[in-house]
Amino acid sequence: MSTTTASRIERRPFASLGHADHGWLNARHHFSFADYYDEERMHWGAIRVWNDDEIGPRSGFPPHPHSDMEIITYVRTGAITHQDSLGNKGRTEAGDVQVMSAGTGIRHAEYNLEDETTTLFQIWVIPRARGGQPSWGAKPFPKGDRSGKLVVLASGYDEDREALRIRADARLLGGTIRAGESVTYDAGEGRHLYLVPATGRIEIDGQPFEARDGAAIIGGAPITITAIEDAEIVLVDSI
């Protein structure tokens, strides 16, 4: 691993993340959140929150408000059921994604109505502008369609036509990589990447990462992601 690679890719081991165990919710925080504060982990580019949540069966988050934030939920196992003050209702299953633009204000609830633990990443991205009409959307993304490549799942850019829409200068990508295979991703100068292998061990430009570690990466040059074990990758590319 070169000095240049080490200086632009920071490993954040899973064990170093903020931790809160509420019984029904076992949460790890990649960035400062609730009672976890780390001035070095306030945000990364436009990414403000990346929570790794395990939600117990028949439990969840009761109605609560948000405003001026783009909130993305990537379900890893199980399913989450959404309900909000706009009248939206929906159930998002493993591998699929839901997005909520909080805008001027919205109340929502997220429940695990299943008989098994649901695991998910909840990611908050700072919007490009405050205000706007709140909205919610969800979409299935079969994992087979992203085998061996990174696919854009949510995006604030018009060219990503198949992705869920967010109002931020950012995109969420997901992919599954078999052991021994590699994918390359190129982010422009001034971009900030945050990558987490949901499952499996990987290397990024030769630097090893365990499942659920975080990688904070400075853009401006391609990165190569190699799966040491079969891996599921989640990546946010933001300003």
TrEMBL record:
Signal sequence coordinates: none
A Pfam family assignment: Pirin_C_2
CDD domains, sorted: cupin_Yhhw_N
Residues of the Quercetin 2,3-dioxygenase C-terminal cupin domain: 154-237
InterPro entries per record: Pirin, Pirin_N_dom, Quercetinase_C, RmlC-like_jellyroll, RmlC_Cupin_sf
Family stated for the protein in its record: Belongs to the pirin family.
Protein's name in the database: Pirin family protein
